Each structure stands twice: as structure tokens, then as C-alpha cells.
């Protein structure tokens, strides 16, 4: 089953629903525009931000109220305080961000950067292990980072994904606990293919596979009594962007280490899931404080 695990590098995400009590007002437009000018944001950048964090503007009567949840704009003083807090130099911070395909330039508020740095420091070792596993398949660090960011975006858009995946996970694990997929019954094989295809669709990717240079479907791949001499594949976003390409030699399937690596690949999605959850939880706590 290693080759199936290798194809589906990331399949588990858990979106966090952002909720705050509702009200019947919103910050005056002129106050909001003045504030955005002060922090150097366009109206669209602001709207994208509140949309990402699902911040309901009608819950805030004034810009001062809104500031409580948005946070403190980054300046040289609080930026240095953050470096001291985590014992990092500016270069080390930039390297840490880069490891996750991120940049300090993406952040406007120090609280958001703080939450991100906290998460990245804790997840850095796991990310390095995942990237090592992916490198065995010819997947570069840049591809892993691009896929990580893509999955975080997909997770943010799919609010009902957890319920759908909980069922899929159980069915999938039951079916994958077999030594030889070619011995699955026709019904089991159809169910496994259905689960895999639905999972791929949930995560808004397209997977093209070739066994020994010939296009192959998931079902036919699973029915092979012997692993292919070489399995290659491409993973695309639904818009056609190439996210990952991989190449798995026969030796990979025959090695017990390959099973471990196959399991590690799933962790990339778990990391992206945890990141989105972490950022939303931090913002949720700020929102609750601001409404008190």
C-alpha cells in the first residue's frame, strides 16, 4: 500500500470555525479608511484579512473596538521584543519563515507574527522530517512549502471538511490494513478507490499517475500483483497549477523504510491543518478579549 500513501501526500485537515457574539453596528467608513491609511493597508487587503479570520465587522462599533481584535501594527520596538522573546536573530527568523514558505513581510500585526513564530518553532522539526521523506521521492523543499501553503488555503475554504473526512478516515484505514491490495475483493477495491478519489476532490487537487511510463488509474494501480518498476505522478491544483511532481522507483516499494516515509508524508497536511487552527484560535481569543 506504500504507493497509495506516497500519492496522497496530504489528506487530513480540520478547519476551525471562528465565532464571536453578534451586534448591530460597524465602524464608520471614514474612521476605517483613516485607520487603513495609517497602517498602510488598502481596503481590499483589509477585507481579505477579516475574511480569512472570519471577523464580523458588525460586531464592532468603532475602529478602536476593531483594533482590539486586529492587533498592534509591527514596529521596530515590538519586532525586536519578539526576537528576544524567542531567542532569534533577524536572519534566523527569516530562515524559519522561509522553511514554511512564509515571510515576515506578510504580517501587519505583531500578535499574528508572534502566533506564527510560536507555531513554526514547535513544528520546525516535524516539517524537516516531512521534507526529508518527500525528498526521497524527488520532491523539493520548495514544492513541499508550496503544497503546505496551498493546503492551508484549501482548508480555510472547506468548512465542512472535518465531518466528511472523519468517515473517510475510518473506512480508509480499515481497507488499507491489508498486506496485498491485489487480493481485495472487487467491492473493497471499488470502495477504496471511491474514498481516495473523494479525498482528492475534497482537497482540490488532481493527481496524474504513470506506471513504467504509461498512464494508470488508481484502480488499476491497486490491482497490480507486482509494484511497477517506476511510478511517477503530478499533483495539480484544480486551477491547473503544478504543486508537486514525484518519481518513485521500485526499490522504494520494497523497502520497509518506504512505509515509514509514506506515513510521514501525511504529516504535511496535518501541519498545515494545525497552523490554520492555531492562527484562528489565537485570533479568536483576541476577539473575545476585545468584546469584553
Which percent band covers the strand fraction?
5-15%
Q: Helix- and strand-based class? A: alpha+beta
The tally of helices reads: 13
List the secondary-structure elements in sequence, H or E. HHHHHHHHHHEEHEEHH
What assembly state would you assign to the polypeptide chains in this entry?
single chain
Coarse shape: elongated
Strand order of the largest sheet: 2-1-3-4
Could you describe the largest sheet, including whether it forms a barrel? 4 strands, antiparallel
Uncertain segments are: 1-24, 256-267
CA radius of gyration is 22 Å
Secondary structure: number of strands: 4
Number of domains: 2
Q: Helix fraction?
A: 55-70%
Distance between the termini: 52 Å
Mean pLDDT: 75
Describe the structure.
This protein has 13 helices and four strands. By secondary structure, the protein is of the alpha+beta class. The protein has two domains: 2-14 and 127-273, no CATH class; 29-123 and 277-290, no CATH class. A four-stranded antiparallel sheet has the order 2-1-3-4. The termini are far apart.
Key structural traits:
four-stranded antiparallel sheet, 2 domains, disordered N terminus, 61% helix, 292 residues, single chain, alpha+beta, 13 helices, 4 strands
Helix and strand layout, with pairings?
Elements: H1 2-7, H2 29-39, H3 43-52, H4 63-70, H5 76-86, H6 90-99, H7 110-135, H8 141-157, H9 161-176, H10 186-202, E1 205-211, E2 214-215, H11 218-223, E3 230-237, E4 242-249, H12 250-254, H13 256-290
Antiparallel strand pairs: 1-2, 1-3, 3-4
Helix pairs in contact: 4-13, 5-7, 6-7, 7-13, 8-13, 9-10
Amino acid at each position: 500500500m506504500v504507493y497509495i500513501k506516497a500519492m496522497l501526500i496530504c489528506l487530513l485537515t480540520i478547519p476551525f470555525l471562528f465565532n464571536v457574539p453578534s451586534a448591530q453596528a460597524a465602524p464608520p467608513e471614514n474612521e476605517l479608511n483613516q485607520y487603513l491609511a495609517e497602517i498602510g493597508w488598502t481596503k481590499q487587503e483589509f477585507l481579505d484579512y477579516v475574511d480569512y479570520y472570519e471577523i464580523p465587522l458588525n460586531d464592532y462599533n468603532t475602529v478602536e473596538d476593531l483594533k482590539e481584535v486586529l492587533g498592534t501594527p509591527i514596529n521596530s520596538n515590538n519586532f525586536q521584543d519578539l526576537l528576544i522573546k524567542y531567542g532569534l536573530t533577524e536572519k534566523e527568523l527569516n530562515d524559519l519563515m522561509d522553511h514554511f514558505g512564509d515571510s515576515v513581510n506578510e504580517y501587519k500585526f505583531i500578535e499574528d507574527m508572534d502566533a506564527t513564530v510560536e507555531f513554526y518553532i514547535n513544528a520546525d522539526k516535524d516539517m524537516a522530517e516531512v521534507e526529508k521523506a518527500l525528498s526521497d521521492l524527488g520532491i523539493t523543499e520548495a514544492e513541499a512549502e508550496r503544497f503546505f501553503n496551498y493546503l492551508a488555503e484549501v482548508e480555510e475554504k472547506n468548512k465542512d471538511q472535518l465531518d466528511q473526512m472523519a468517515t473517510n478516515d475510518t473506512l480508509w484505514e480499515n481497507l488499507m490494513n491489508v498486506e496485498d491490495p491485489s487480493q481485495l475483493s472487487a467491492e473493497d477495491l471499488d470502495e477504496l478507490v471511491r474514498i481516495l478519489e473523494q479525498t482528492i476532490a475534497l482537497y482540490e487537487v488532481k493527481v496524474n499517475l504513470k506506471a513504467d511510463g504509461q498512464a494508470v488509474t488508481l484502480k488499476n494501480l491497486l490491482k497490480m500483483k507486482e509494484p511497477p518498476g517506476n511510478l511517477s505522478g503530478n499533483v495539480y491544483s484544480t486551477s491547473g497549477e503544478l504543486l508537486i511532481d514525484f518519481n518513485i522507483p521500485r526499490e522504494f516499494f520494497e523497502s520497509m523504510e518506504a512505509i515509514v516515509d509514506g506515513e510521514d508524508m501525511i504529516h504535511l497536511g496535518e501541519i498545515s491543518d494545525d497552523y490554520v487552527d492555531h492562527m484562528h484560535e489565537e485570533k479568536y481569543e483576541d476577539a473575545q478579549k476585545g468584546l469584553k
